[in-house]
Structures are given as structure tokens and as C-alpha cells.
Amino acid sequence: MNWHHGGLYVKDLVASKCFYEQMFEFKKYTSLAYEEEQIVILKHEDILLELIEDEEHHYSNSPHFCWEVDELEETISRLASLSLQPVEGPYTVSETGWYTAFYQGLDGEMIELLQKK
């Protein structure tokens, strides 16, 4: 597995985007809407940071992390054999072509597994 990106829920997407651009030299990589979430993905060198706007309740302490895998379906099957099922996905993100699934860790953290197409 390889590190792919980190994600943060934020209260104000525009303010957070400006903060990471100004303070840490990130640039906008892409943006998208998934269901009711507005998302901006920023990039600095090889680092991707996903900002997810949530004005109501998630932004205070609910990050997720993502590992890139070579074959998502094989990984899903292996995890299923260990009695771990995705809580979301798998699905393809049309704007990026990424194929992804989410799992929940023991302490409620979200773990994303992603295959680039």
C-alpha cells in the first residue's frame, strides 16, 4: 500500500482552502460534489489534502485517511474474509477516475482504500 491523501471536515470550505493555499502552498487540484458534500482537493508536491465542507457537526474531529492499493476488489475480498465490510462503496469518482471504498476503524476513524484507474 502507498499513502494517497488525508481528508478533513471543515466548517468553511473557502476559508480552509485559502488557509492551506496561503500557509502551506497547496494549490487546487480538483473540486467535486458528492451527494450533499462539497469537496476541494488540494495538492502540494506529492501530497493531496481533501477538504470536505460540513457546517453542521463533523468538522471538529473526524478526519479520514486513504491508502492506495493496486487492486481494490482483491483487497475488499481479503478484508471480507476477515469479516470487515465496507461502510461505503465501492464506487468510482467520475471527476478523478478513482475507484474507492470506505471502512470504519475501531475508534470510528474512516479508512479509505483507493485504486487509481
Describe the structure.
The protein is α+β, with helices and mostly antiparallel strands. It has one domain: 2,3-Dihydroxybiphenyl 1,2-Dioxygenase, domain 1. Helix content is 19%, strand content 48%. It has an eight-stranded mixed sheet, covered by helices on one side. A hairpin with a 4-residue loop joins β6 and β7. The longest helix has 12 residues, at 13-24. It is globular, with a radius of gyration of 14 Å. The two termini are 15 Å apart. The mean pLDDT is 86.
Question: What structural category characterises the helix and strand content?
Answer: alpha+beta
Number of helices: 2
The averaged pLDDT comes out at 86
Lateral strand order in the biggest sheet: 2-3-4-1-5-8-7-6
Main beta sheet: strand number and arrangement?
A: 8 strands, mixed
| CATH H-tier superfamily | 2,3-Dihydroxybiphenyl 1,2-Dioxygenase, domain 1
Question: What is the first-to-last residue Cα distance?
Answer: 15 Å
Q: How many domain modules?
A: 1
C-alpha-based Rg, rounded = 14 Å
Percentage of residues in strands? over 45%
Helix content: 10-25%
Shape, principal axes of CA atoms: globular
**Run of helices and strands:** EHEEEEHEEE
